[in-house]
Amino acid sequence: MQRRTLACPFSPLSPRAPRRRARRSPAAALLGAALSALSMLLALLSPGSALADPGAASSAERDEGARPPTAGTALFSAGVDLEIAGRTLSYSDLLSDNLRTYEVLGVPMPSLRGELYPFARSAVPVLRDLGVELSYARALGLDSEGAGGASVSTSWSRLHAGLRGRYRLAGQDGPVLFAGGGLRWTDFDIESTGDPSRDAASVSYVALRVGVDGRLPVGPVALEAGGGVQAPLSMGALASHFRAPSAGGVDFRVAVAAPFAPGLEARAGVSYARFFYDFDSEPEDTYIAGGALDQLFSVHLGVAYHGE
């Protein structure tokens, strides 16, 4: 007896069975892709993710290495210094005998300074290295010599405020370049004595300043150097004694910083500023000089803190 097997044309076991594929509409495909993208975005924006908190990754790296912030990476920096300052004022082409030079040395002058980079933890490279700076200094116990050797009360102060940017050349521990601009006020006021030859030494510079400086790590310390150009908007009493006065200024500084604790460093350095005048004096003027040179300088010791 022969046995015959009948194959059903629609049996899944049959080699001739037709195969049907599920087909999705374009709208369903777009909906699925949108849901997938939305779920990925929510995962990235969840607390603790790198996108939601750009500083999270860098904070983790710092925790692993336990590396304190430096001048090139800090959110803020603050410092206090004791300056020992001096000033000299002299005239060029002096043709009248009613003016005198001025000199004072060894003046104690405490100073405070600070920098803040509010976007230091941002993922945007330009914003995270753009900040503001502020500094203030004032002389203590300063007097000038008046007529007959009498002591004349004198004040000397300096204030600076401006924007500051930084650029790291080789990572956190490499050289750093800084550039900034702002207003600097330097006031040296001698109480009026009624003697113009002495009162002329009073100045009050309000100047636009643009400057650059750098910081170079060398072994366990860092060397700093910088300078700037100052364009006075006002000059004070000295300029008022002359016809058509004009003035300009430059400043320089060098320092060395030595870390001694996480975020803390000891600092020492020198600074120098000079303002040069040009006068258009005429023979009939009360005060006759071709120009003047006003020099301000100091050595300083202090401490600074870089924080995050």
Would you give an account of this structure?
14% of the residues lie in helices and 50% in strands. The protein is mostly beta strands and 308 residues long. Strands 1-2-3-5-6-7-8-9-10-11 form a 10-stranded antiparallel barrel. A hairpin with a 5-residue loop joins strand 4 and strand 5. Residues 1-24 and 44-65 have low confidence and may be disordered.
State the strand order across the main sheet: 1-2-3-5-6-7-8-9-10-11
* Average predicted local confidence, pLDDT: 83
Number of β-strand runs: 11
State the secondary-structure class: mainly beta
- Pick out the low-confidence regions: 1-24, 44-65
Number of helices: 5
Gyration radius (Cα, Å) is 35 Å
Tell me, briefly, the overall form: elongated
Brief summary:
By secondary structure, the chain is mainly β.
Topology:
Elements: H1 26-45, H2 54-65, E1 76-92, E2 102-116, H3 125-128, E3 130-138, E4 143-145, E5 151-168, E6 176-190, H4 196-199, E7 203-218, E8 221-234, H5 237-240, E9 246-261, E10 264-278, E11 291-307
Antiparallel strand pairs: 1-2, 1-11, 2-3, 3-5, 4-5, 5-6, 6-7, 7-8, 8-9, 9-10, 10-11
Q: Which features characterize this protein?
A:
single chain; 308 residues; 5 helices; elongated; disordered N terminus
